[in-house]
Amino acid sequence: MRIKFVSYFFIFFLFKVGGGDTARSSRPGWCPHQPTNIWNMRWFIQYIFFFFLILFCKNLFAQNKSARYEIDAKRIGVNFYDKDALPRSREFIRLDSTYYVGWYYEGMFKYDRAADYLGYKNCIEPLKKSFLLFEKNYKNDLKTVLTPGAYSFAQSDIMQLSNALYDSYSNVEEPDSAMWVLNKIQSWNTGNDFMEYHIKTAWTIHRNRFYLHKYVFLKNTVEENEQLALNHLYTALAGGDANAIFYLAIIHNYLLNIDSAALYYNILKQTGGFSYNNYAHFQNTLGNFAEAINDFENDMNAFDKRLIEAYYFLPTLFINSGESKKAIDETNGIIATNGSTPGFGWYNIALARSYLYNGQLDSCDKAITKAAQFKEVHIGTTLGQSQFDFAVNVIKLMLAENKIARVKFLNTGWWYSLKDLSEIAGLKGEQFLLKFALVNQLSGNPEREQVIYNIFTSENVIGFDEILDLMKNISPQYFAEIYKQKLQTEKRKNIVRYLQLFYGEFSYEKDDYNESLHTFENILNTALLDTSHEKLFIARLYESLARSYSHDDEKDKEANMKYNFFNEYPQLIPFSGFTIKMNLATSGLDNSMEKNIIKELKSCDINFTDETNSNIPKAFINFLQLKNKYEVDYNVTDANGKIIVPQQKIYFKNEKGVGKELALRLCGVGGPAELD
Questions:
Q1: For 377-400, how does the pLDDT look when each residue is reduced to its tens digit (9 = 90+)?
Q2: Which residues are CB-neighbours of 449 under 8 A, at least 6 positions away?
Q3: Strands 618-625 and 630-637
Q4: How many CB atoms lie within 10 A of CB 418?
Q5: Are the CB atoms for 392 and 398 separated by under 8 Å?
Q6: How far is residue 130's CA from residue 332's CA, in Å, rounded to a whole number?
Q7: Is the sign of the CA dihedral 371, 377, 383, 387 positive or negative?
């Protein structure tokens, strides 16, 4: 009615100003000698024009009203997620482009099917248009429409629309626009907090806490941002929104406020708002690795269009447990199931890491290249692009290091091979560039103290072993002092031994050998370990002790620690720089092919010996000729017959390279059954 009245008034105003004899005499260019009948004809034409203009406007508004009735009627029975929703949206827009419903159907249809960056980007325009039109269409009735309990299409539409627009902005990393949506709805002051303003604001702040000086809604430090997020959550909690507890547990865990996090997780357990994924992070933070694995496994069935964090973090826990093959299988499974949907990049990082610790460097290279080339979308997670890029570069650095070690392991005469020297030189250059990139990433990361130097934190996307390797490549003197201080304040009893290992490693790197050895021996003699889930830690401890004893020329202790190292995590041996002793027994064919393979095997960095004592593993190799190829069976046991590397088979036609492959396989490295 108001629109009609204003339109009629405007037309009447034009009529009065533009017509009539009194107005005519005052108009510029009027000539009193012109015939009166001409002027009468002109004004008659104006009257007719204005009359039809009034009729047109009246008809237009009537058409809008009838069009909206038609749209509201036709939308019944058609949901935005139906296959017919998109053509219906175009029909609705054609009927009345100023009505929010057509744009709502288009935007929600695209949002429902979005699964990558472009998908979410493309649905923002119609969603935003619908959002603004809704505000305009119901400008004076927003409070009535959003009255709690008073269900209507309009109420349901704006709730779904607002959440979709907020999520889309968040998923394409436009948090300032996401905050605009929250603030716009808050400014309506309807009394219906359907967006949970304080909770979503806290989540947006927490997700973007490290982008200092980039967004106006953030403070100047990570600590201030986290406090701001907590303040919002406490405000929501004081207002009766118990959902705030869920997010309070996450943020307190991130801040290592262990007692507060435990309190809120216990409340969630009792009230049914419990998340296995988040609780798994909490248990991992505490060093309760068996419980963390169990909780992550309980969250593995949550299939939807987002990163399922269990499939990223579980492989690291499997690696720590010495089960890199299981990590490979689990990660390949989710990649095959979900394809290139959000999470694909993260899963390939996890897969690359799993291949790395299994010794399959070529497969690791392929997986990390896929991850680096994928445009990841970070949905429903606090993990972002900066963490993604950091994890990719850390894996690439370790891969380059291991490739250099593999060249040296597969040819003890590498130092006079032009091919090997050239390959090593290229890898050294790659190493240098990666170190430079990582130092820049680390120095530019305002939360490095919280989530990298503090190991096993909820937002840490790389394993403790990767952190240790990275920091030894940067400044062991600096980090030795850092971890000496952390040992004085660490409250997580299961994490103290890891900090001791770090301190011992950095002490060795800065030539403080006595302090280093004392630290390692203290861990060995006093730490209570979870031997099923801390195999990587135990292996690194044995490796460090072997190196320290070698420096002190204590041969027997060194040999014992090398044996323990191999027994605990054999896949690490080819990349450690150690030469281990191994008793070798062969059977089967006695021909030149077998002899050439064994000769190539013995050119690798394993000290094959006839000795049989308690510190020397035993390798068994059996050759068999099949119809059109050869088969070789192999396995490795300890001196007492306990299996270290289970019996496996390799099939081949060409003997070249089989000896080198066997050297890796005898150290537990995986690979295909058929060699090209």
A1: 887 788 888 899 999 999 999 999
A2: none
A3: antiparallel
A4: 7
A5: no
A6: 41
A7: positive
Q: How many helices (H) and strands (E) does the chain have?
A: 30, 5
Q: Please check whether residue 420 is in contact with residue 488, taking contact to mean a CB–CB distance below 8 angstroms.
A: no
pLDDT tens per residue, range 513-535 = 999 999 999 999 998 999 999 99
Q: What is the DSSP letter of 380?
A: S
Q: Are strands 630-637 and 643-652 parallel, antiparallel or unpaired?
A: antiparallel
Return phi, psi of residue 195, to 5°. -90, 0
Place of tokens 């307190």: 252
C-alpha gyration radius of the chain: 35
Cα–Cα distances in angstroms (integers) from residue 72 to residues 68, 81, 93, 616, in the given order: 6, 17, 12, 81
676 token code pair? 């090209």
Q: What is the pLDDT of residues 197-252, one digit of tens each?
A: 999 999 999 999 999 889 999 999 999 999 999 999 999 999 999 999 999 999 99
458, 253 Cβ separation under 8 angstroms: yes
- Give pLDDT, residue 273: 80
Beta bridge partners of 649: 633
Count of beta carbons in the 10 Å neighbourhood of residue 406: 20
Residue with tokens 């947006």: 204
Q: What are phi and psi of 211, to 5 degrees?
A: -90, 70
Q: How far apart are the first and last CA of the chain?
A: 81
Distance CA 288, CA 284 (A): 6
Cβ pair 293, 284 in contact under 8 A: no
Helical ranges in 463-574 per DSSP H: 464-472, 476-489, 496-509, 513-526, 535-551, 555-568
Sign of the CA dihedral 601, 607, 610, 611? Answer: negative
pTM summary value: 0.86
Question: What is the 8-class DSSP label of residue 605?
Answer: S
Give 436-473 pLDDT, tens digit per residue: 999 999 999 999 999 999 999 999 999 999 999 999 88
Q: What is the mean predicted confidence (pLDDT) over 567-594?
A: 93
Q: What does DSSP say about strands 643-652 and 580-587: parallel, antiparallel, or unpaired?
A: unpaired
Distance CA 266, CA 259 (A): 11
How far, in Å, CA of 284 to CA of 278, rounded? 10
Q: In 3-state terms, what secondary structure has residue 19?
A: coil
Cα 384-386-388 angle, rounded to 5 deg:
70
Q: Is residue 541 classed exposed, middle or buried when 0-12, 13-18 and 19+ CB atoms within 10 A define those classes?
A: buried
The answer to whether 328 touches 358, Cβ cutoff 8 Å, is yes
d(CA 47, CA 44): 5
Q: Which two tokens stand for residue 467?
A: 């952190």
Two tokens at 409?
């392991």
- Nearest residue to 304 (alpha-carbon basis) of 342, 336, 351: 342
Which positions ≥6 away from 646 have C-beta within 8 Å? 635
The burial class, CB within 10 Å (0-12 / 13-18 / 19+), for 270 is exposed
Angle between helices 385-410 and 658-665 (to 10 degrees): 120
* Residues 282, 253 contacting (CB under 8 angstroms): yes
Phi, psi of 582, deg, nearest 5:
-150, 130
Q: Range with the lowest mean pLDDT among 246-260, 288-302, 342-356, 403-417?
A: 288-302
Angle of the 117-137 helix axis to the 175-188 helix axis, nearest 10: 20
Give the integer Cα–Cα distance in Å for 179 and 52: 47
CA 646-649-655 angle, 5° bins = 135
At 221, give phi and psi (nearest 5°). -140, 160
Q: 101-130, pLDDT tens digit by residue?
A: 999 999 999 999 988 888 999 999 999 999
**Nearest by Cα to 656 from 610, 614, 617, 600:** 600
Show the tokens assigned to 480: 């030795």
